[in-house]
Amino acid sequence: MADHLQASVSSLGSSLQLLDSSISTLDSGISDFPRLCKVLQTTRHFELLPEPTLREAQQSLLDEITPSIAHLLSLASNHVEKLSRREQGLRAKCELQEGRMYSNESRQPSRMRSAYGDRLQSGGASGKAAKAAELKRLMQKKERLQYAVERLELQSTQRERQLRKSMAFH
């Protein structure tokens, strides 16, 4: 029986050695396991979506942005039209002022004297002074009336523009 017991003890000892050897082999094999888990782990860099989902997202963005873009375009268009009308008004005003300036240059006293000088020379000294005063008064009245006509014409063109502007918005 001692032999059998001795054989069991030796068999148990060799089994223990084999188990130790297996444990050390397993230990060396799995000691790098956390790193291997990290290396072998899959990472999704891009999320793949089905094409209908992508189209729905694009359409919802388009539906959301389109009214804002249309509103901004209409605001910009209205502002451009307003600036265009203002430019036209300023050009008309400039032309009116240029016309006034040229008409003032053409109405110099030398031309008035030459036009009415013959009549003034025929009368006496007191008659000349009275006629000159009357002529001056009439020339001033004529200038005032010309300015009034020009001002009314300018107002008329401005009202026409305003009417066109109000008709364009309605």
What is the CA-atom radius of gyration, in angstroms? 53 Å
Overall shape: rod-shaped
Termini gap: 121 Å
Largest sheet, described in full? none
Q: Kindly state the percentage of residues in helix.
A: over 70%
* Structure classification: mainly alpha
Mean pLDDT over the full residue set: 82
Q: Approximately what portion of the residues adopt beta-strand conformation?
A: under 5%
Give the helices and strands as they follow along the chain. Answer: HHHHH
Count of extended strands = 0
Q: How many separate helices?
A: 5
In the predicted model, the low-confidence regions spanning at least 5 consecutive residues are: 111-116
Textual characterization of the structure:
It is a single chain. Mean pLDDT is 82; it is low at 111-116. This protein has helices spanning 2-30, 33-40, 51-106, 109-122, 125-169. The protein is mainly α and 170 residues long. The protein is 89% helix and 0% strand.
